[in-house]
């Protein structure tokens, strides 16, 4: 299950996690974001218990999008031990995201 993160809970969910975290930075109006949304949801189910999958709406939570220099969406950041370990900008096949997340396990 995906977790909605925002400027209030981002640190607790992402930075303090003891598991790898995939954060999908997206917006409602973004077509490519809507294209990858089902893949991100599938990944959240497949990696349940092994990794955290979170979504951050850049319109309602601009603080962390700005902090991490998110200029294009969708952007997916992969965190390990509270630090950015990998990044993917734009819509890509699910296998690309799975490979990046598997590398952090």
Helix content: 25-40%
Instruction: Using the CA coordinates, give the radius of gyration.
Output: 12 Å
Mean pLDDT: 96
In whole angstroms, the N-to-C terminal distance is 18 Å
* Succession of helices and strands: EHEHEHEEH
Largest sheet features:
5 strands, mixed
Q: Note poorly predicted spans.
A: none
User: Order of strands across the biggest sheet?
Assistant: 1-3-2-4-5
CATH fold-level topology: Glutaredoxin
Work out the number of β strands: 5
CATH-assigned homologous superfamily: Glutaredoxin
How would you sum up the global shape?
globular
Strand content: 25-35%
Query: Based on the structure given, which CATH architecture is correct?
Result: 3-Layer(aba) Sandwich
């Amino acid at each position: 299950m995906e977790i909605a993160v925002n400027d209030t809970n981002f640190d607790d969910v992402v930075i303090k996690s003891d598991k790898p975290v995939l954060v999908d930075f997206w917006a409602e109006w973004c077509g490519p974001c809507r294209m990858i949304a089902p893949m991100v949801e599938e990944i959240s189910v497949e990696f349940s218990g092994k990794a955290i999958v979170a979504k951050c709406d850049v319109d309602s939570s601009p603080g962390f999008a700005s902090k991490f220099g998110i200029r294009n969406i969708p952007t997916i950041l992969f965190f390990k031990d509270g630090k950015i370990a990998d990044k993917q900008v734009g819509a890509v096949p699910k296998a690309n995201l799975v490979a990046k997340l598997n590398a952090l396990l």
